[in-house]
Prior knowledge:
Helix content is 2%, strand content 46%. By secondary structure, the protein is mostly beta strands. The protein is globular and about 55 Å long.
Amino acid sequence: MQAVLENDDLKVTINHFGAELSSIVKKEDNVEYMWNADEKFWKRSAPVLFPFVGSLKNKEFLYEDNAYPMGQHGFARDMEFSLVSNDGKQAWFSLSSDETTYEKYPFAFTLEIGYLLTGHTLKVIWKVVNEDEKPMYFSIGGHPAFMCPLNGEGKQTDYFIAFDTDKDLTYSKLSENGLVYKKDNILPINGGTMQVTEHLFDEDALVVEGDQAHRLSLCKPDGNPYLTVSFDAPLFGLWSPAKKGAPFICIEPWYGRCDSEEFTGTLEEREYGHRLDVHENFETAFEIEINQ
């Protein structure tokens, strides 16, 4: 099932499964901005990453002397959410813990995901509630995939990424296990922009930590931005499938990341992890703007 939001400018479609954004169409010219989840390259469009972002060391986490197996990016993206409300401009989805989640993630929680459409901007809202009688530890992140090139115009290597900084970015690379292993790589930013090169994603995602940028735009060959993602997350990922020439780029706001190759700690000790005390909640948001 799907929920639809619509105004004079955009039509937005969200799947109930995973509460996953699947389409943003600009009504003026009927152009699609989201990747269509074609399995030839990647079967998803914009999964929500919860309660983990990325891969865990040895594909498990340690909590209270127990090891819990966990796949990449957690489980929320592969679960059916309940549609709580939809007035045509704003939709809310909810996922609550149950016996199956508790076996692999021993916390009682509610995850609420909201989508608010205003003009040319879609706001994505995340709310995490600790329903347990003990502190809860989690991470959350977005993984939206945007068309690049847009509407089949030109080659991806003709496009640019613009940042809200003109300083070079430091980023980490991922190992074959999907773990951080090589830090302090330099991503040159010339006047606030960088060209998308053919081999940019040959070694998987680029993980940019430390609040280095909070606003990224995909730009057409003429340099004009066509889509902007704004967030306050402390880190983000840039990704497209390695060496596949996939016609999309992911801009991923993260409140958490994968483990490092040298990590040997417990769930409570994971880098960028979040702790919620009993019955507390965490709320944040990011925005996707379709530039006019």
